[in-house]
Fold:
Amino acid sequence: MRKSVFALLLACACIFGGHRLFAQQISSDSMQVLQAREAALEKASELNKLKITLAKKQKEAQSLKAKTDHFNAKANDFLGKAKKYSETLKQHPADRKAAKRAKKFTRRANHYTRKANRFSSKYSDVKNQIESLQKQIQDVQQQIDQDNLRVHFQQPPSS
Structure:
C-alpha cells in the first residue's frame, strides 16, 4: 500500500509540478535571438504594409491620370468645335445657329476643363503621397539593412 501511495504521489507530482522540471530552459542568448527575430518580423511586416499601400496608390494614380487625359481630350475636342463655329460666326455674324453652337461647345469645353483640373489636382496629391511612401519604404529598408535584421524562414522537414 505504501508503494502504491508513493507511486501515486510521485505521479501527481510529475503531472502537476513536473512540467517545471522538464520545461525547456531558455538562455539569455536564445532570448536575444528570439527578440531579434521578432524585431525583424515587425520591420518586415511594416515594410510589406508600406509596399502594399504604395501599390494601391500607384494604381489610383494611373486611374486618375487616365481620367485627366480623357477629360483633357474631350475638352480639346469641344474647343476645336467651338473654334470652328466661331470662325463661321466671324464670316457670317448674323448666323444664330453658329452662335448657339459656339456657345454650347465653349460651355462643354469649360466643363470638361474644370473636370480635368479636378482630377489633375487629385493626381498631383496622390503623386506626392507616392513619393512620401517611397521615402518611408527606403527608410525602413535602410533600417533593416543597418540593423542587419533579416527574417530567415526555416523550411519544414521533408518527410
